[in-house]
Amino acid sequence: MADEVKLFGMWASPYSRRVELALKLKGIPYEYIEEDLSNKSSLLLKYNPVHQKIPVLVHNGKSIPESLVILEYIDETWRNNPVLLPRDPYKRSIARFWAKFIDEKILITTRKVSFTTGKEQDQAMEELSEQLKLLENELKGKPYFAGEAIGYLDIVVANFLVFWFRNLQEALGINMFTKERFPIIFEWIEKVVAIDVVEVCRIPKERHLVYIRTRLEAIKSASK
Amino acid sequence: MATSEVKVLGSWPSPYAMRPRIALNIKSVDYEYIDEKLWEGKSQLLLQSNPVHKKIPVLIHGDRKPICESLIIVQYINETWSAGPSILPSDPYERAVARFWAAYLDDKWFPAVKSVGIAKGDEEKKAAIAQVEEGLALMEGAFGDCSKGKGFFGGDEIGYLDIAFGSFLGWLRVTEKFNGMKLLDEGKTPALVRWADRFCSHGSVKDVMPDTDKLAEFGKMVIAKIRAAGAAAERH
């Protein structure tokens, strides 16, 4: 029986893109369904009734929501190269720890950076800088977060930082995430974007800038 | 394996700190438990072991760097002591289901339980209680799917989701006690009520589950502190 793989996603979501990148790196054929988040499809609500969010992977009719859960599912189901999570249990826990740190802590700080100004924003950027430094430390002595080849944490960081955050900072008119301040991460970025499927999964920049600016405006006026 | 090879830094009222201990018990791994009295300040060992979050639980295994985040620790324990009973199912889809529900409990459900305790006014409290009950109804359904007629979410034996959910039972019972109501109700979620008894009396759990009355006393102290801090902030 042929495998049927569907991905419900959204073009501007780094969480959705991280699943696409994992599928493409493993060479898994899939059908992509773009969701309009202002008008969610009945299929999405059926496949993710609890959270009603993308991404959702549907494999032979079984649905798996939550991007980090999906990444582990992909790695455990399609065991071909690249193996996304390290084999060593200790290294796996470190990869999982930093992915969680990005999705929980770094995300909150980027929100603070987006929605504050003046001194408050400076403080938020300082906090973000410290968090990014911690992440950068994990790269020391290795070409990729996962070691010799791209893996789970590289996928998470690439989508969050490289594709999403760099556009966000441009839309905000700030420039804190630079080669000068984060030389090791930028060296890693060059390696990652040279991988052809990574470029294919990149969020289209110009469209993304417009999207971010529109969303920021909408959120700011809603909170007035 | 020498007892001092494996250390768990925890705090007795913390549901998260219970999780690595249950997992180590399931695997019959000896460990040294170090109790942190967090309300008196954080020890040097904790600050050194978890500099990023400064939180318990922390697992220290031999001379490896410490591992943090309770569910990440549970998976590490499962993968390191692979000879013992498996804590996660072997099927990738069933593993994804267990991970999904554990994340839901941590991110959405338990925060709602906590809100019941610190809710200001009846409206807020009612809303929080409704969320808790909605979550319990979902978990009753999940139990049916995951247990496949057996006694635990993990089947015949306690697994990842039993540990994730069961560790919250102490605080759920305290919430019921403080509000004079039943949240885990035989009429609404009969399978969960029976599961909860089975879980709490399990050999790997019973010595680690705090006594409800002791937890309630502790809860009163915490709520008083939060309210005092809130009142002090409002006075400024």
TrEMBL record, chain A:
It is found in: Cytoplasm, Cytosol. Its EC number is 2.5.1.18. One of its GO terms (cellular component) is cytosol. It comes from the Eukaryota. It catalyses: RX + glutathione = an S-substituted glutathione + a halide anion + H(+). Residues 3-82 form the GST N-terminal domain. The keyword Transferase applies. It holds the Pfam family GST_N. One of its GO terms (molecular function) is glutathione transferase activity. It is an enzyme of class 2 (transferase). Keywords: Detoxification, Transferase. GO terms for biological process: glutathione metabolic process; toxin catabolic process. InterPro entries: Glutathione-S-Trfase_C-like, Glutathione-S-Trfase_C_sf, Glutathione_S-Trfase, Glutathione_S-Trfase_N, GST_C, GST_C_Tau, Omega/Tau-like, Thioredoxin-like_sf. Its main location: cytoplasm. Residues 88-216 form the GST C-terminal domain. Belongs to the GST superfamily. Tau family. This is glutathione transferase. It comes from Hibiscus syriacus.
Automatic annotation (TrEMBL), chain B:
It is found in: Cytoplasm, Cytosol. Its main location: cytoplasm. It comes from the Eukaryota. GO terms for molecular function: glutathione transferase activity. Belongs to the GST superfamily. Tau family. PANTHER family: GLUTATHIONE S-TRANSFERASE U17, GLUTATHIONE S-TRANSFERASE, GST, SUPERFAMILY, GST DOMAIN CONTAINING. One of its GO terms (cellular component) is cytosol. Its EC number is 2.5.1.18. This is glutathione transferase. Pfam families: GST_C, GST_N. It comes from Hibiscus syriacus (Rose of Sharon). InterPro entries: Glutathione-S-Trfase_C-like, Glutathione-S-Trfase_C_sf, Glutathione_S-Trfase, Glutathione_S-Trfase_N, GST_C, GST_C_Tau, Omega/Tau-like, Thioredoxin-like_sf. Residues 4-85 form the GST N-terminal domain. Keywords: Detoxification, Transferase. SUPFAM superfamilies: GST C-terminal domain-like (SSF47616), Thioredoxin-like (SSF52833). It catalyses: RX + glutathione = an S-substituted glutathione + a halide anion + H(+).
